[in-house]
Structure formats: structure tokens, C-alpha cells
Amino acid sequence: MTDSSPKHVKIIQATSGWRLIDFEELWRYKDLLYFLTLRGIKARYAQSILGVSWAIIQPLFTTLVFTLVFGGLAKVDSDGMPYVLFSYLALWPWNYFSGTLTESANSLIQNANMITKVYFPRMVLPLSAILSKLLDFAIAFVVVIGMLIYFGQVPGWGILFLPVLTLQLLMCSLGIGMFLSALAVKYRDVKHALTFVVQLLLYAAPVVYSTTAVPAKYLGFYVLNPMVGVIEGFRAAFLDRPMPWEWIWPGSIVALICFVFGMMYFRRMERIFADVA
To answer: Which of these, 262, 203, 32, lies nearest to 270 by C-alpha position?
Structure first.
């Protein structure tokens, strides 16, 4: 006797064109996103004696080097604030941004076996890599609190805009991260070039210097760097200074463009991942 009951078959079709994100599908795979994010955190600190303490040690050590070289030897202007605080408030968001670029660019290649064997939204992989870095970002905030107490600095009302600045940071990281992850699958040179490109980008943002050091003739182009508004905004929020909206708003628009383009480019390239991964 044969079973004549209807069978449900799901047909998976490759995406094509510049399509928007299927948020409903991402929500259905939220458990997988959670698992991959947790796996990324555990893998980062596996067999490490100091564990998550590296999230504090690494930016703090870099800050001390910058303070010695740029603040001490080069005498770089820090807008009248202690250079160690000046540089750390910039390195804090910058390290998250640069870390997400590296992690997300390698996420699809490192999980090639999953891509070729089972179906799931491919966007989950770079997204989990980006979300896993949020733990480091949160832990590094402990140093910010310690420095503010040590220097007797009380944040002003600008601290209320911190969620807006963090959102801009996330949009920029997600957009560029998604773009790089899709590009790295087809062009493996991205992984090798990204290391020194990130180092160059460090000096294209006001991490070791103030925006007042940028020549006026370059400001029209410089303001389009979304990380400029984020870094200057973080400094203003914690140091009770006027919010630099002239830096933040142009960067917010560019960050939004990067976010939309990065997501749509990833969606367009998603159909070839299994073939070239």
C-alpha cells in the first residue's frame, strides 16, 4: 500500500538582482545566528590564559604606545585633553570597526563547508562575526569608565547621543563588512590586502590626531569618512563638549549608503557563494 498523502517540498531558488534583505528569513534562523555568534566568541579566546581580558589589554597597550610616540615624542595636539584619554576614546570605536572588517571578510571562506552542504541565509555568517565583536566593544568600555574617574572627567548631556553614534558605527561596520565578505569569496586577494588597508585607514580617521590638524582644503572630502563623526562624537559625549554635528551628519548619510549598498551587494552575490567558496 502506497502513501498517497501530499508531501511538502520547499524549492530554493538562487537570488538575482539587487534585492533587499529578507528579514523574515533571518528571523527564522535566529537560533543559528546566536549559535555562530557564541561560537565566534568562544573560538577567539579558546586556550587563552587571559581570556576576554585581551579585549582590554590590546587597545590599552596600543593607546600607551600612541601616547608615547604621538603625544610624547611628536607632540601631537590633543585639543587640550590628556592624550591617553584622547586616543583611547578614538581607539575604542575604531578597534571595533577594524575588527569587524577582518572578521566578516573571512567569515564565508572559513565556513565554506557549511555553505556547500546545507542551506541557510548566508548573511548569518558575516553578521555573526560582526555581532561577536560587540562583546569586546562592551568590555573595553570598562577602561573608559576607569579613565574618566582617574582624570575626574564627568560626561555631559552629549552622552545621550551615544546610541545614535553606536548605530552609525554599526551601520558602517555592517555595510562594509557585508561587502567585503562577498567580495572575498570571489577575490581571495581581499583577505591579504585588508591587513595593510586597515592600517592605512587608521590614519584617515582622527585616531592619533585631532580634526583641527586637517587642512581646510581637504575638509570637504574628509567629512565624508563616517568614522570621523563617530570618533569625534564619542570624544564629545564623554568629555562634555559640544556635539560635532558638522562631522556626524555627513558621516551618517555615508554610513547609511554603505549599509544599504553592502547588504544589496551581498544579496546579489549570494547565489554564487556555493560555486566559488
So the answer is: 262
